[in-house]
Please model this.
Amino acid sequence: MTTYHVVPGDTIIVDPAPVVPPPPPPPPPTAVTTVFPAGAQRFTVAPTATTAKPVAIQGYIWDGVMLKLGQLVTFSAPSSASADAYLDITGSSINGRYCRVTTGVWAGQLLSASVATFATDPLAPVTPPPPPPPGNPPADLQAAINATPSGGTLDATGGVYRGTFTINKPMTLKGGKISAPGNVQQLLVINAKNVTIDGTEIDGTGNTETFCYGVTLNSADGSVVKNCYIHDIIYCGVMVFGTAGGAVSSNHIARIGVGQANDTNAYGIAFTNNGGAGCSGMTADSNLIEDVPTWQGINTHSGINLTFSNNTVRRTRRAYWLAASSGYTISGCQVTNNRAESPLPVTYDPTAFFIASSTGCTFTGNFISNDYAHTGSEFHDGVRDYGNASTGLVVTGTTFG
Model:
């Protein structure tokens, strides 16, 4: 120990005690996120719960209209205080009761859930794929189409256009985006043979015309629609009238007839007649068709020797439908290696594969979700032959899951 002699006038300095910092605040609680695929899973909250629980839903809450970011969906409260409130993704219901919901939810969005209210989180939108690199798009698409020589190629990559556009000669249109200006019936119309549409986006958002078509083929023999994104169309993504040969392939067709003017029927792809010839020798291959809640994914009313192969249809009331209009026939069609995945929560006649009064048609190696009806006197390995009225129908290799 050291001793110091202190006299008046000396200064004494005392080392202060070290300052102990306060403990760091506890980390915020980790948000609980549960991912449900579209199907029969339920998100359950006790009726007395007061805190929100984030939920990411793959699929959407359905009653015909998609939910935009920031909108609310409110359900009826449970009728019994002792019962849990839940969202049934297959039925959009509380405690099993069907609710008239005026909005839906995009796949993958983050929802904040309380007992009876669900809201989108605008901080968690679905990230779209990056757009293709811009080319040198024309300012006036219709003028550029008219100026393209027969058999030539018009590259509209990076261009954005509003209106109805018509092609009356053999040519190729690549890229570009065509959107609806308002009340129009058709967005892209093909009136010539041997036309190719490659990688074009067709956007019907905001259109109010009940019978709007995204892409229309009128007697367009040998034409091809491929690699396109066709979405938010009220009536039909691709409508094919009286065309022989050609293909609709590798397209993404989404949200057809979803909560817009036409809520009774809609088609992803339809092959039909123009009052004269039906469709023949065409192929629908490797398309993804989703969210056609009121009607059919791929349809033909007058198909001869059509091929439907390697397509996936999901969240659609009736996935594949082959039934002739009066005066027409369905014959020689091949339906191979397609998938009919979970339908939307419909209560009437959800059907994966349907055929009626056909001749010589074959279904091979297709997949059917167990959510679709697929047993009964009219079903043959999951394919429904209406009235068992087809002749020469062959169905093999169907799988279920």
